[in-house]
User: Which sequence fits this backbone?
């Protein structure tokens, strides 16, 4: 005995054309959303594959892969299956928790490169998954508040590249003198990022 209740065709007569059109439009929209999410999942795997090719991990490829993951998870309305696929793509590409963290709820925390100034005028070039927390910790350890100059998407590889690029300004560790080249770099990024810059 079947639990399916038959829907007699003659009962369709009471449905209005407007209702049927709205239902059809909703079905088309749902299909479009599904196709969009599937496309985003494919983009995540492609971006992660590009990042994997550039061993050691290319900072731009990692940044683009992270952006695709964020987009994909948001587009899926934080679907746990999509979150799992994104984690798998990142893991397969060698992009670990040091570059991006995805909570079980689908909140994405990605690495950012930051520039912060201390009271002596030195500029720290660092990176963190949680910049505000990192600056708070550094400020408390130094006994002073640090001025956040700029935050940009990035990776450990970008941070290292910037340290090498500004090596002639290095004072100690990740702290650099505020030479014209470094200040110009920060200002040009701030102009590029516009309202996204602190």
Assistant:
């Amino acid at each position: 005995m079947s639990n399916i209740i038959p829907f007699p065709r003659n009962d369709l007569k009471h449905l209005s054309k407007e209702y049927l059109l709205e239902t059809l439009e909703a079905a088309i929209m749902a299909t479009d959303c599904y196709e969009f999410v599937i496309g985003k999942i494919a983009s995540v795997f492609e971006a992660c594959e590009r990042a994997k090719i550039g061993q050691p991990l290319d900072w731009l490829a990692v940044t683009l892969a992270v952006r695709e993951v964020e987009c994909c998870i948001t587009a899926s309305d934080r679907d746990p299956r999509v979150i799992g696929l994104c984690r798998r793509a990142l893991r397969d590409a060698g992009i670990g928790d040091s570059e991006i963290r995805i909570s079980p709820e689908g909140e994405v925390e990605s690495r950012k490169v930051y520039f912060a100034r201390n009271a002596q005028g030195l500029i720290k070039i660092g990176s963190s998954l949680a910049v505000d927390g990192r600056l708070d910790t550094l400020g408390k350890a130094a006994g002073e508040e640090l001025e956040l100059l700029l935050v940009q998407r990035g990776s450990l590889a970008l941070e290292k590249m910037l340290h090498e690029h500004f090596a002639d300004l290095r004072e100690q560790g990740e702290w650099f003198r505020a030479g014209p080249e470094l200040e110009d770099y920060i200002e040009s990024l701030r102009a590029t990022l516009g309202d996204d810059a602190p």
Remarks:
- The CA atoms of residues 50 and 61 lie 6 Å apart.
